[in-house]
Structure prediction request, 194 residues.
Amino acid sequence: MKRLRDELPGEYRRMASGEVAKRLVSSLWYEKAGEILVYSAIRSEVDLSAFCERARADGKCLFFPKVQGDTMDFFQVDSERQLCPGAFGVREPRIVGDEQRGAPEEDCGEVYAGRIWNGSASEAPILVPGVAFARAGARIGYGKGYYDRYLAAHEELIPVGICFDAQLVDAVPAEPCDRPMAWIVTERETLRSQ
Prediction:
């Protein structure tokens, strides 16, 4: 599935990412969401840049993940300048102490000045990347379990799977403890899976 996604032409991925952004903005949950947990795309994932720009213009608070060891937390980010290459090459919030992690200074943003997401917004949406998604909501990630653990600890979140249509399949293996996505959004459709 990763290879299939990687083989999508770059121009198609850019167009499809724009279509995903339009679908997200027109989603049922978007208007009432004050806080949205998002991600920075790596490799050939759906790029949320256009969505984040629109969400900021609409007054939404955006939170990006930061991996530290086996844990992942989300920090408020007001500007792309507050992101810096971190774990696995993913752009993440830069906080005090990151200077010692070895990322080239020219690739680093401002030192983080926002706040950590603490569950203050009931039913906040979390946009979740993945390798493959089943129409019924199951997800295959990258195998480290960061999102699985985070979703298990934050049941108030509304998980929204983000993928290209090519990543949507009839079924994927899932464990009983895996939390299914409430919604799945591709460039072609928005599915309510629960």
